[in-house]
What does this fold into?
Amino acid sequence: MTAPQRILIVEDEPLIAMMLEDFLDILGKSVAGTADCVSDALSRIEEGGIDAAILDVNLRGGEKSWPIGDALAAAGIPFVLATGGSGDAVEPAHRSRPVLAKPFTMDGVETALAELG
It folds into this structure.
């Protein structure tokens, strides 16, 4: 498998999403889209053109990103879980996924994406 190039960002904090976009650009990746909630992310996945995703575990309004992870897994699209670690419990179905710890660094993003393939 070749390294993923088109990355979906699921992040509810606009500044963090923009920082991830910058990191991906520097790493030679393209942003396949951004979403800040479960419904937007699921719509984006249905549109296609995604090689991988970075999923913030906790989204605005108490939403969890597990339905997004389930949809990505069903579509065979690898993803990284982004977490602040403060008690973020990872669903058993996704515990084997790479974890990207907050605060993000470019090296951390690069390493997490490299674990995908």
